[in-house]
Amino acid sequence: MNKNIVILGAQWGDEGKGKIVDCISSDAEYVVRYQGGHNAGHTLVINKKKIILHLIPSGILHKNVIGIIANGVVISPSALIQEIKMLEENDIIINERLFISNSSPLILQYHIEMDRAREKKLGIQALGTTGRGIGPAYEDKIARRALRIGDLKNTKTLSERLKKIVHYYNYQLVNFYQHQSIDYKMILNDLLSNAKVLFNMIQDTTHILHTAIKNKKKIVFEGAQGTLLDIDHGTYPYVTSSNSTIGGVMTGTGIGPKNINTIIGVTKAYSTRVGSGPFPTELFDKIDKHFSHQGNEFGSTTGRKRRTGWLDSVSLCRSIQINSISSLCITKLDVLDGLDEIKICISYKNIYTSKIISFPDINEWEHIIPIYETYPGWSQKTLGIKKIEDLPYQARAYINRIQEITQTPISIISTGPDRSDIIFIHDIIHINKSITLNTI
Ligand code: IMP
């Protein structure tokens, strides 16, 4: 049997997917990024050392794993090379262990300038993007004008097309956004020197993956961002520009749904969001301070303070549906240590009609308030606990309640930032919803 696992975010990103991918990929042969770009920030702590990856799949930290950046990812060649260097400085040699799709669209300087110019113009209505050029790069893909990784192999056509695109962007940047123009020669020279470094990594990654599937190799697909930031299913327009939901695995790699054996949705034991947009359970009180401080809730890509709130089971249930999540992984349980009480949002109410809303439509988000259930907290430390029976009973009751509300088994609990701070509850491959939700 194949053992192909998807790990994806069930909230607004930053759920701690990187650590989970790292933990379950020690026996994997391939770890694959399928969407997003270097807007992601996957923080890993190994032997007390912090490593932040933005583009390269987290599984690369295991020496036997082959990393794949598939066609759904938008790639900044300079960011990728910088990351390869950072890994090498940390003695993680990726030589012949990293392949990038020839179909991945490139992120170049004009995308970054455009992203920033647009955000500036939007003023207080800004989306709060990471400023990495992600949106404009995906726009180019859909508009069929993108330069792609495979284009790096043909210097002549590359330089001709680049010239036209730079002209197109400069016109908008200067005339519409009153922004500085960009220099074609500089982009071309950078690109040509970066192309030399990346040349041997460029492959037909769809073919690599199908060969791996045929040979029953274990593949882990590593999601970036989260379900509520998905371009189609998220809180539009406050979303990223890719499909961070399950569909992104298929379109972003070229494998089929039947090639996936299990889908793990990762959620924090509470909620966070960076950037603007709806966040029903958001807190502004001392609990926000507690989450920020105990959970170190500052963006690993931009350093921005993350907004924090209670766990929102309404949006979590929606994520479970959209992604066909087989089981949940709860991260940062230890951040709840020391709270007198803990809440879960169990429904949304329209403030004007008092009606309970199953899920808000695009204009309804501003008019809803969360309805909570409250549970007792615990004073003991759960940081680093490795066995479910060692958790305080209040923590187990909280976990059980999440299972009950979502009708989804919880297979993994993360109790701290380190690789070893983890509790495995179920066999993640064979788990499915028809099993009885055992009381933990
Ligand atoms: P973009 O992806 O840079 O275009 O940003 C669009 C929205 O997605 C903004 O609200 C960002 O803060 C958010 N976002 C993008 N990447 C991440 C991530 O990795 N974690 C959390 N939020 C993200």
Give your account of this protein's structure.
This protein has 440 residues and is α/β, with parallel strands linked by helices. The protein folds into two domains: 5-76 and 207-424, 3-Layer(aba) Sandwich (Adenylosuccinate Synthetase, Chain A, domain 1); 109-200, Adenylosuccinate Synthetase, subunit A, domain 2 (Orthogonal Bundle). The chain has eleven helices and 18 strands. It has helices at residues 17-24, 77-89, 109-122, 134-142, 155-175, 184-198, 205-214, 247-251, 286-294, 313-323, 393-406, and strands at 5-9, 30-33, 42-46, 49-53, 66-69, 98-101, 202-203, 219-222, 262-268, 271-273, 307-309, 311-312, 327-331, 341-350, 356-357, 368-376, 410-414, 422-424. The strands form four sheets. The chain has a ten-stranded mixed beta sheet, with helices on both faces. Strand 3 (42-46) and strand 4 (49-53) form a beta hairpin. Helix 3 (109-122) crosses helix 4 (134-142) and helix 3 (109-122) runs parallel beside helix 5 (155-175). It is globular. 46% of the residues are buried. The mean pLDDT is 94. The structure holds inosinic acid. Residues 13-14, 39-41, 127-130, 132, 134-135, 224-225, 229, 238, 240-241, 274-275 line the site of inosinic acid.
